Amino acid sequence: MACIAPSESMNNCEADQALTKNLQPVINFSSILEDEETDQYTDNVHENSYILGIKEYIANSRNLHLSKVISREKRAAVLICLFEGLEGELRVILTKRSMKLSTHPGEVALPGGKMDEEDLDDSATALREATEEIGLKSSLVQHLLTVVPVVGLLSRVEEFKPLLNADEVDAIFDVPLDMFLKEENHKCVEKEWGRLKYVCHIFEYESPKQGIFHIGGLTASILIHAASVIYQEPPSFSEYLPDFSQLQFTLNMKSSC
């Protein structure tokens, strides 16, 4: 089992980061800390353009209705826990699922899991799972939004001391959030589910002390969307397969005439 300390790998930046595009997130950690110090955090949080951007994205999401109709037995939530790195970049915490698990063993994932009866909402689910999996206290996570996925800011990363649940997590690491908008270290694979074809995005990240991790599937898709909203910029690669349905319809109409 591998574990990182926040004072080491949690705040490391990639060596070539200065050579890559400098994306600017719509999150200001300094203003967050000022709000906390002046006890105006609660009043000011809804004015933060980051919050407004996330809410606009959620409101326009084609899957918004799912959050209202899915039964508790089949609900799940994940935590996109963001923090500020040493160079001011946004980083997101990820885990490697334990090989002991019956589903998706060894895969990279966001902290999270299925909703329990005692969970009040999706935020409670995501926070509880993060506490159980990696020892992340809910008191350290701020700016929570009651959506799925749940977005949170870890403004005091130095207070987070990872404590892994060996039955669920083999490793914890963090990556720059903007990597999910870049072509570098990214590839996509075309897959099929029944008669439906879709793109599976895969990102490769090399940790200085833990080796190479592959981030793909639902986790990659969630982080692509989150990064797009927070940085107010689409990914540099095509997110979906080309839609030729309208062209096919036109061709069929012409052939039938």
Write the layout of secondary structure elements.
Layout (H helix, E strand, L loop, with lengths): L28 H9 L3 H4 L4 H12 L5 H4 L6 E9 L5 E8 L10 E2 L2 E3 L7 H13 L15 E4 L15 E8 L9 E8 L2 E12 L3 E6 H14 L14 H12 L1
Describe the structure.
The protein is α+β, with helices and mostly antiparallel strands and 257 residues long. The protein has one domain: Nucleoside Triphosphate Pyrophosphohydrolase. Helix content is 26%, strand content 23%. The protein is built from seven helices and nine strands. Strands 1, 2, 3, 4, 5 and 6 form a six-stranded mixed sheet that branches. Strands 7-8-9 form a three-stranded antiparallel sheet. The chain starts with 28 loop residues before the first helix and ends with a helix. This is Nudix hydrolase 15, mitochondrial-like isoform X2. InterPro entries: CoAse, NUDIX_hydrolase-like_dom_sf, NUDIX_hydrolase_dom. Keywords: Hydrolase, Magnesium, Manganese, Metal-binding. Residues 73-196 form the Nudix hydrolase domain. GO terms for molecular function: coenzyme A diphosphatase activity; guanosine-3',5'-bis(diphosphate) 3'-diphosphatase activity; metal ion binding.
Short description:
With 257 residues, this protein is α+β, with helices and mostly antiparallel strands. Helix content is 26%, strand content 23%. One of its GO terms (biological process) is acyl-CoA metabolic process.
Domains counted in the coordinates: how many? 1
Assign the CATH topology.
Nucleoside Triphosphate Pyrophosphohydrolase
Helix content: 25-40%
Q: Spans with pLDDT under 50 lasting ≥5 residues?
A: 1-20, 36-68
Question: H/E series, N to C?
Answer: HHHHEEEEHEEEEEHH
What is the β-strand count?
A: 9
**Broad CATH class:** Alpha Beta
Which structural class do the helices and strands define?
alpha+beta
Radius of gyration: 19 Å
Mean of residue pLDDT values: 75
Would you identify the CATH architecture?
Answer: Alpha-Beta Complex
Largest sheet: 6 strands, mixed
Counting DSSP H or I runs of 4 or more residues, the number of helices is 7
CATH superfamily (homologous) name: Nucleoside Triphosphate Pyrophosphohydrolase
Strand content: 15-25%
Shape: globular
Q: For the terminal residues, how far apart are their CA atoms?
A: 66 Å
Keywords: Hydrolase, Magnesium, Manganese, Metal-binding
Protein name: Nudix hydrolase 15, mitochondrial-like isoform X2
Cofactor: Mn(2+); Mg(2+)
GO molecular function, one term: guanosine-3',5'-bis(diphosphate) 3'-diphosphatase activity
